[in-house]
Description:
- The chain has two domains: 2-139 and 181-204, 3-Layer(aba) Sandwich (Rossmann fold), CATH 3.40.50; 142-177 and 208-246 and 261-268, UDP-galactose 4-epimerase, domain 1 (Alpha-Beta Complex), CATH 3.90.25.
- The model has no long low-confidence stretch (mean pLDDT 93).
- The chain is built from eight helices and twelve strands.
- α1 packs across α5 (183-193) and α4 (153-164) runs parallel beside α6.
- The chain is an alpha/beta fold.
- β3 (44-47), α2 (59-80) and β4 (83-89) form a beta-alpha-beta unit.
Amino acid sequence: xxxxxxxxxxxxxxxxxxxxxxxxxxxxxxxxxxxxxxxxxxxxxxxxxxxxxxxxxxxxxxxxxxxxxxxxxxxxxxxxxxxxxxxxxxxxxxxxxxxxxxxxxxxxxxxxxxxxxxxxxxxxxxxxxxxxxxxxxxxxxxxxxxxxxxxxxxxxxxxxxxxxxxxxxxxxxxxxxxxxxxxxxxxxxxxxxxxxxxxxxxxxxxxxxxxxxxxxxxxxxxxxxxxxxxxxxxxxxxxxxxxxxxxxxxxxxxxxxxxxxxxxxxxxxx
Length: 270
């Protein structure tokens, strides 16, 4: 099986190529406004390439890469008869607390809007290929160091614990609960869905939640670190989703997959 992965140098892309490359022929492409990938001859394109920073407010820039380029990828795949998997995001749900795929959407950032608009557009198109969209929830795991401020709490907390033996945690972090899904699970779900002859959009999350405080405590215990509670800056107070939890009923209807818990992952890590 020949697969082209766009965004192959990103966090999820690196992990996915490492995993799928064990038994598949994998090629990569990273965004270049002057060079478009040739999708001919591939069995699948896995389209991950995007501006993923929720703090990017250059709307034109985000829409060009996340929406217009995604439309181009779909059209090329459809013309060439190449099946398509693409990365959507749980950010489309925004402040909504109903995380069923058909629930109302409340995107809060240009990034979230770009994902929502492409979801809506692509599912309205006629196509003769398989098109699968995946709404990732709060992804964490290895190979994320390059993301800086956009890295997951897992990566930030682990880095602080190892380097300073102290984890800085915003006050009231027990109130913020997220559906943290390991990047290893993301890769495995992508692989399993390659065998599903069905188009649609699916949530990828664990269906459970962990608070920032619970995660920090697990990492602190693993690394003999302490937790230092600090005030949350005013500019961030309205930027944090307080709660995310994937409804994975639809995913469970097409594949069988057991997700690793945050505690299991942290206890097994180096």
